[in-house]
Amino acid sequence: MDFSKKYDISVYLTEEQLNKRIAEIGAQITEKYRGQSVYLICILKGSIFFTTELAKRIDLPMTMDFMSVSSYGSGTESSGDVKIKKDLEHSIEGENVIIIEDIIDSGNTLSRLSKLLAKRNPKSLTICTLLDKPERRVVDDVNVDYVGFVIPDKFVVGYGLDYDQRFRNLPYIGFVEGEIK
Ligand SMILES: O=P(O)(O)OC[C@H]1O[C@H](OP(=O)(O)OP(=O)(O)O)[C@H](O)[C@@H]1O
Ligand SMILES: Nc1nc2[nH]cnc2c(=O)[nH]1
Ligand SMILES: [Mg+2]
What we know:
Distance between the termini: 17 Å
Strand order of the largest sheet: 4-3-2-5-6-7
Strand content: 25-35%
Number of helices: 3
Shape: globular
CATH architecture: 3-Layer(aba) Sandwich
Number of domains: 1
CATH topology: Rossmann fold
Bound molecules: 1-O-pyrophosphono-5-O-phosphono-alpha-D-ribofuranose, guanine, magnesium ion
Number of strands: 9
Structural class: alpha/beta
Largest sheet: 6 strands, mixed
């Protein structure tokens, strides 16, 4: 990380736009699971901001848990596994699991992760992402249930998303337009 470098970042989605959309998704989830509980899984690190904001907008009994994964190189691993760097603390058997992601790009992470979690016998398994870049998809087995915003094929940062571990703390989503010389 080189913190001396300065970058030109243009705002694409403001904090107000993000929070308004997240509140809508929270209300949808609350309605869908009324009378039941949900088990939110935050995929570290990118989805921390989205998960916490969304969790506050879901009016249901809830467990929040965290997972950290890294995908094996695509193509060569026929097992379709992900390497688990940090696993869940509790069993998800019989739970209404909602996987929370900041972005779906190639789809590899979620394709592998959802297969792995499905083997643990949840009652239901749902995918919720703040951003979706469908133009980049290389898999066809990721069915996303809740999408905040469909975005073009451009690299975004902020609201949890990083560029070389920087910019996660921006309260908005922006495009990196380049380095300021
Ligand atoms: O659809 P895919 O092509 O698999 O890409 C999406 C994944 O990549 C990013 O995470 P990353 O592995 O960079 O880690 P981070 O969340 O810690 O930034 C992002 O947060 C998603 O988890
Ligand atoms: N920060 C960031 N991470 C990603 N991972 C996959 N796509 C993206 C993106 O556009 N921005
Ligand atoms: Mg991530």
